[in-house]
């Protein structure tokens, strides 16, 4: 549908305005920089992205009314 309708629906546009809280506990975190504010492990980011995709998909299916509102908001923002 996005390609046919000409909407700009890349990942950044979809995530714009959306908020989520994700908690990750690592046995051996690898930080970048001296202030330890940025994780340097690529596997963490890909694991979190996969988990969010799976759980968000499940949530959208089990909460169709709220999921529809989220999808409508994304589509409205993409059309602007």
How are strands sequenced across the largest beta sheet? 1-2
Q: Whole-number average pLDDT?
A: 78
User: Could you estimate the helical fraction of the residues in percent?
Assistant: 55-70%
Largest sheet: 2 strands, antiparallel
- What integer value in Å does the Rg equal? 16 Å
Number of self-contained structural domains: 1
The chain-level structural class is mainly alpha
Oligomer: single chain
Q: Helix count, per DSSP?
A: 4
Give the DSSP E fraction (strand runs of 2 or more residues): 5-15%
N-to-C series of helices and strands: HHEEHH
Low-confidence blocks of residues: none
Distance between the termini: 16 Å
Shape: elongated
Say how many strands there are. 2
Q: How do the helices and strands line up, and which of them pair or pack?
A:
Blueprint: H1 2-5, H2 11-15, E1 31-32, E2 38-39, H3 42-62, H4 64-78
Antiparallel strand pairs: 1-2
List key phrases describing it.
80 residues; mainly alpha; two-stranded antiparallel sheet; 4 helices; elongated
How would you describe the overall organization of this protein?
This protein has one domain. It has helices at 2-5, 11-15, 42-62, 64-78, and strands spanning 31-32, 38-39. It has 4 helices and 2 strands; from the N terminus they run ααββαα. The chain has a two-stranded antiparallel sheet. The longest helix has 21 residues, at 42-62. 56% of the residues lie in helices and 5% in strands. It has 80 residues and is mostly helical.
